[in-house]
Amino acid sequence: MKALLFDFDGTLLNTNELIIRTFMHVLNDKFPGQYSPEDCIKFIGPSLKETFEQITPNEVDEMIAKYREWNHAYHDEYVTEFDGVNATLEELKERGHKLAIVSTKKRDTIERGLRLMKAEHMFEFWIGLEDVNKVKPDPEPVLLALDRLKVDKSNALMIGDNYHDILAGKNAGVKTAGVAWSIKGEAYLRTFEPDYMLHHISDLLTIVKEQ
């Protein structure tokens, strides 16, 4: 595998608590007592636009603005690193693999997380919400990454913690890997039939060697 394309939230950086707390803040303000933290798990993964179009179709922009304001204010307080991520990324890069991020979040928020991880130098680039017309599960962001990397789809792997990561990879014609530490659970991810399931990020070192 020449190219490894990573989702960011919930795959490389544990932002689950931050995301759930942010949704709880904005939804409790709008719909007091109607949503629980468990209800918010289903909002993890899709773009904010997609989520708020379902919840408040007439106030999408306003709800996104409120979400981002609270999320940015508390970002560093609630995110944590997953075990072994930086060490694995360093080894993959040393072996000559090209690493990129394909996310549905804005570039500045990706960059903030990467700075916390001290991992900016490990990636060729990161593709965010503003870089594409259609987000995952559409193949556009994956195909854009492959085009920028000058790598054929047969030599790429899309890695993520949610259904839209797996489907985006499949739609783009690349192999896919789910991560068993997904907040939605390994069994849920397996229903989308990824080619691989990672139980620890270091599993990638074996997978890419076999390929």
Question: What features would you highlight for this structure?
Answer:
211 residues; alpha/beta; Rossmann fold; DNA polymerase, domain 1; 2 domains; two-stranded antiparallel sheet; 10 helices; 14% strand
Query: H/E element string?
Result: EEHHHHEHEHEHEHEHEH
Strand content is 5-15%
CATH architecture of the largest domain: 3-Layer(aba) Sandwich
Largest sheet: 6 strands, parallel
Separate helix tally: 10
Query: What is the number of E strands?
Result: 8
- Poorly predicted runs are none
Mean residue pLDDT: 96
* Structural classification: alpha/beta
- The domain tally reads 2
The CATH topology name of the largest domain reads: Rossmann fold
Please, could you describe this protein's structure?
- This protein is an alpha/beta fold and 211 residues long.
- It has two domains: 3-14 and 81-210, 3-Layer(aba) Sandwich (Rossmann fold); 16-78, DNA polymerase, domain 1, CATH 1.10.150.
- The chain has helices at 16-30, 37-40, 48-55, 60-78, 85-94, 107-117, 140-149, 163-172, 186-190, 203-210, and strands spanning 3-6, 13-14, 80-81, 98-102, 125-127, 156-160, 175-179, 196-198.
- It has a six-stranded parallel beta sheet with strand order 5-4-1-6-7-8, with helices on both faces. The chain has a two-stranded antiparallel sheet with strand order 2-3.
- Helix 9 (186-190) links the parallel strand 7 and strand 8 (196-198).
- The longest helix is centred in the first third of the chain and has 19 residues, at 60-78.
- The chain starts with a strand and ends with a helix.
- The model has no long low-confidence stretch (mean pLDDT 96).
